[in-house]
Amino acid sequence: MAITSIKNLKEFSTNNDRFEGAHLLCPGCAHSMIVRELMNCTDDNLVIASNTGCLEVSTAVYPYTSWDTSWIHIGFENAATAVTGAEAMYKARKKKGTLKDPDAPVKFVAFGGDGSTYDIGFQWLSGAVERGHDFTYVCLDNENYANTGGQRSSATPIGAHTSTAQAGSASYGKKQKKKDLVAIMAAHGAPYVAQLAPNKWKSMAKGFQKALETEGPCFINTVSACTTEWKFDPKDTIHLTDLATDSLMFPVYEIIDGHELNILYRPKNVIKVEDYLGAQGRYRHLFKPENKHVIERIQKDIDENWAMLQRREEARI
Amino acid sequence: MAKEFELNEVEVWDGNYAASQALRQAQIDVVAAYPITPSTPIVEGYGAYVANGYVDGEFVMVESEHAAMSGCVGAAAAGGRVATATSSQGFALMSEVLYQASGMRLPIVLTVVNRALASPLNVRGDHSDMYMGRDSGWIQIDAFDAQEAYDLPLCAFRIGENHAVRLPVMVHQDGFTTSHKAQNVYPLKDAIAYKFVGDFVPVDEMLDFTRPVTHGAQTEEDWHYEHKAKQHKALMDSPAVIDEVFADFKELTGREYKRVESYMMEDAEVALVLLGSSVHTAVLAAKQLREEEGIKVGVVAPRCFRPFPYDLIRDALDKPSLKAVCCMDKSSPGGAMGALFNEVSAAAYSTNARPMMTNYIYGLGGRDFSVDEAKRIMKEQKAHADAGHITTNIQQFSGLRGPKLGFYEIRRS
């Protein structure tokens, strides 16, 4: 890794810039921060695949591209398979000696939103990880189908309003809990799995570097605050993400070899989840008296999850 | 370095094994595959070559056919030779990615062992999957027997990978009747076969980091139309390369392939047009009828299903002697005339003689198509010719149990 220091954010943010600022993502969207951070944390060549979604439609509209590296998009569900097909081709051509520069270091990375990762592309991700390809999959988890206007996904938390799980006089929004995809990917036996957040940019960069350096399939879930569908001011993306990590709604941790869990961020002052929920329009209805039980349920789930993560970290199993 | 596979001058192979040997000889870089009846032995055969050192490339066993074609697209964009095999439901599952592969102009070879589409579930051969692919933007070449199932994939790599073409190619063979029927096959030696196929020369590859490429961009109403028109033009221009490759193959092997195969059409009064292994049945029936009853029957078989050889079909049917033509579709037409009927009729409309055109649906789900049935249909065409008009429904079903099924009658004033 040619980059020696990720302590200086200004230096880091301009290192090895291969993601053009000219793209069509919403102002305040965290996707571009996360993508840029991954691409800046390595000097190796990158082959990147994107599932259909906000990132893809905003960065490769012919005749323009925001990608100053090899990039491919096929469909909604198959970026993991596209990039592992490319990885297989790399291995074959390296063996046969047909690569133009056989010594050039290269990393294979797939990006998907939570729609394509938790839901429609889950099978493709699972298959690619089971096969053991050397690649890193990064989920840009904004907890809804934002590209199509904000429908529920299995990453949408309980109680959130989306256009297909609406809050109304007879509903408090989504009724089901968020799928624990990080645990599922760890259960695949992937050598490195993590949940990272762009406000904790140092741990995020380190996590990305670990994933890229680890041989084999790695999975990283990143919280990507969605100004448009979560409904908060675009200037508050990182503040909102602070609330997500400090309320432990979105704990930051890694799981090595499927079992060794390390918590990467321990808030000094854990805030109540109301502070996080109250900062977003999608949870506004939860503050009505009849929905108070939902906030209590969310807080209880958070407390239990945090206790479980700490127990797992201590147990080293 | 991959080991050479010792081959006899003549081998007894079925269509599946023949296809797997052709794939091995092409020294593919990546095969991403998922097994499905009746094409499974192609994948298994290839797996055996991998396990025993006959292949240097990567063999990626994915979790579905959609992933198989997705992996092929990713691999092809990374600049190497790519192929896979499938049938029926697997073909249907990968159909989304078939369009993406052709739109991205990636030369993948897909061996399709034709099988019926459910429901009802059926593993036997018909052309439902082949027809499903007809608007997908792939070149589709049809093998009628095991020898052709060996020869045509070798040609397919040369065609699809030609830089003037840059399109994916399907090579079809009929499920069971070709894929599981052993016959004498004359293979090439490994070195000769590979020399014919040639080295893969990448275009816009993702592994050339001096020149970053974006594959699979989005276009809306501003550019989508131009991309699709260009893709269509590439398909419509591909016959020049297909003919050239077939000519080279003839020079190498003595085996001649044409985009439209015609049998006994010089003086034919009636003709059958059909695809796949049934072509041999029809040719045998035509020969017998000529000998037994003196009926001048011919057979026309599109070898190249896409791009559809409109001009060559027209030429094949543009005979003053020709009075009646029956197009036989081995796919459920789903509320229309058969696709082959429609396309052949369109070509026949621009002939001088404009023969009478009828349509038979046959062989669905592997229902047998016998020489006797072919003869009966040929004699029926002769009856149309003698009467000067179509004497039956225009669309009929061959070999169907229960009452006769037919649709549309000729208008007579």
What can you see in these coordinates?
The complex is a heterodimer of chains A (317) and B (413). Chain A has helices at residues 9-14, 31-40, 54-59, 79-96, 114-120, 122-130, 181-187, 201-213, 227-231, 237-246, 273-277, 292-315, and strands spanning 45-50, 70-73, 106-113, 136-141, 167-168, 171-172, 192-196, 218-223, 253-256, 260-263. Chain A is α/β, with parallel strands linked by helices and 317 residues long. Chain A has a single domain, classed as Thiamin diphosphate (ThDP)-binding fold, Pyr/PP domains (Rossmann fold, 3-Layer(aba) Sandwich), CATH 3.40.50.970. In chain A, the strands form two sheets. Chain A has an eight-stranded mixed β-sheet with strand order 2-1-3-4-8-7-9-10, sandwiched between helices. A two-stranded antiparallel ribbon of chain A has the order 5-6. Chain A is globular, with a radius of gyration of 19 Å. Chain A starts with 8 loop residues before the first helix and ends with a helix. With 413 residues, chain B is an alpha/beta fold. Chain B has two domains: 11-199 and 219-253, Thiamin diphosphate (ThDP)-binding fold, Pyr/PP domains (Rossmann fold), CATH 3.40.50.970; 260-407, Rossmann fold. In chain B, the strands form three sheets. A seven-stranded mixed β-sheet of chain B has the order 3-2-4-5-7-6-13, sandwiched between helices. Chain B has a seven-stranded mixed β-sheet with strand order 10-12-11-14-15-16-17, sandwiched between helices. A two-stranded antiparallel sheet of chain B has the order 1-8. In chain B, strand 15, helix 14 and strand 16 (395-397) form a beta-alpha-beta unit. In chain B, helix 7 crosses helix 10 and helix 12 (310-317) packs across helix 13 (339-348). The model of chain B has no long low-confidence stretch (mean pLDDT 97). At the A-B interface, strand 1, strand 2, helix 4 and helix 6 of A face strand 3, helix 3, helix 5 and strand 9 of B.
